[in-house]
């Protein structure tokens, strides 16, 4: 009896431990679709081999039906028309679509392991009711027939974009919603963020053979296709052509088609095949011809700084409504000046690190995608500038304007915390600043707190540890703590969960003493530079007690003084200077602007005569 009790106890413990371990679902797609380009109708058959790797029993499933958003009175339409600052690309356009301009996705049949299931669609979500539960560890086969009408291009996807690209096929198929340790995520689509199940895609696309197709993944029948995928062109093409692509270890699949695409290939320094698809005209010919070598150098930098790009190909595809990232490719508007084109290409490709490989739930953590991508974009563009490969100013602090813009918005009263669900920000401006700008500056602040060397190592460690997974905010900060040897939960709480700002100021300078005061609610470690009358500079570093550690000296100042920790609840701090004030010409807090202080007017002594704000 005792042995039974012990065994039962150990079994329960093992179940408990397993439930706390990381897991993720798996969905392998096989799709065969045909596009009727006269009627803009897509008909297809989809098979998903779905593995429930969770410790939970599933009694229902959810799919995304994104095209249903492109209709009058959809949630996307209502949301756009109710925001005080709607996306100008959407505005009220959805409300004016005619029947032949809308998008829709209709399910014709759906079975699980060969047996019909009940389902119902509500807007952009399909809810599936299972007669037989999907058990932990079980793999099931979902077979579906569907029909879709491709909408006119308004946001990201659709037909006939403003530059004349026929089809930008994103969010085009019924896509399984993700289930993770927070449960299901059947978010209605309002043109914001995405979250998908990891898997492999085997996709066949049939359409008129005059079309050139670009897509996620690797073309499997290039010898039958030609069109730049092979060195020799294929003659005597059939009226209809089937394109067969495979994409492995991804969570989405995109494609585009146009009869006028020019397709060029470039083999990058590491063997990655770069594809370029664009309509050649006076606006594109010269600038697109310069892209291959620039993207090759960008890849060299990104591989070193952020981690090795893991896929065999990447495609830069003219299409869409601006720039949007997908596995192994991007849709971008292409009629741009060179700097703009390079910028959008770098940004969307950078998403391959911070969304296509580190696949966070963008709805919950948009800043971990858009913000980290913006950080990488800024650094990569600055690298290209420093190499003289693009024309522009290489700045020691390329984020100066970004920091100034954030600081102004942060104290405007319109800011919202960046842990807000992406769909539920009150304004587009608040979403953009939180996700793109504050998310980017999150890394800037961590680099300042941790020091450049430890931060660089941690950034690579984050990528290597969490690639092909779904890291959450807590996973990221736990890793940064481990790599830095510091406690960082205080930073996470302030930066992520509040709209508090940092503002330190020089209060008093008297003889050989300096008093610094904290006016903003968010504490930070402080760097103070004292310039002597003879031009010599001294650096004083004040660690924050909450950090339970400090960074290593990294500045080139000959005189470096580490001061005792500053307890965050203490509003002021007295610094014992190494020199008397009569030998000092200037005292500055944060002269390099690495710490984001929203009011720099009070950072310098002798003080600038500007009224100081309190927060």
What does this structure look like?
- 27% of the residues lie in helices and 29% in strands.
- The strands form seven sheets. The protein has an eight-stranded mixed beta sheet, with no helix packed on it.
- By secondary structure, the protein is an alpha+beta fold.
- Helix 9 (428-450) crosses helix 10.
- A hairpin with a 4-residue loop joins strand 26 and strand 27.
- The termini are far apart.
Put simply, the count of helices is: 12
What number is the mean pLDDT?
94
The quaternary organization reads as: single chain
- In spatial order, strands of the major sheet run 5-4-8-2-1-14-17-16
Span between N and C termini? 66 Å
- Number of E strands: 31
Q: Return the structural class.
A: alpha+beta
What proportion of the residues is helical, as a percent range?
Answer: 25-40%
- Shape field: globular
Strand fraction: 25-35%
For the sheet with most strands, the description reads: 8 strands, mixed
Q: What's the gyration radius in Å?
A: 27 Å
**Which regions have little confidence, pLDDT < 50, spanning 5+ residues?**
4-19
Which key phrases capture this entry?
8-stranded mixed β-sheet, single chain, 615 residues, alpha+beta, globular
Summarize the structure.
With 615 residues, the chain is of the alpha+beta class.
In terms of topology, how is this protein built?
Blueprint: H1 2-20, E1 26-36, E2 41-51, E3 58-64, H2 75-82, E4 104-112, E5 115-116, E6 118-122, E7 125-134, E8 139-149, E9 158-159, E10 167-169, E11 175-176, E12 179-180, E13 183-184, E14 199-208, E15 212-215, E16 218-219, H3 222-225, E17 240-250, E18 255-258, E19 261-267, E20 273-279, H4 285-306, E21 313-318, E22 323-326, E23 329-332, H5 338-350, H6 352-357, H7 366-386, H8 400-410, H9 428-450, H10 452-466, H11 473-484, H12 489-497, E24 504-510, E25 513-518, E26 526-532, E27 537-542, E28 559-562, E29 572-576, E30 584-589, E31 604-605
Parallel strand pairs: 1-14, 20-21, 21-23, 27-28
Antiparallel strand pairs: 1-2, 2-8, 3-7, 3-11, 4-5, 4-8, 6-7, 9-10, 10-18, 12-13, 14-17, 15-18, 16-17, 19-20, 22-23, 24-25, 25-29, 26-27, 26-30, 30-31
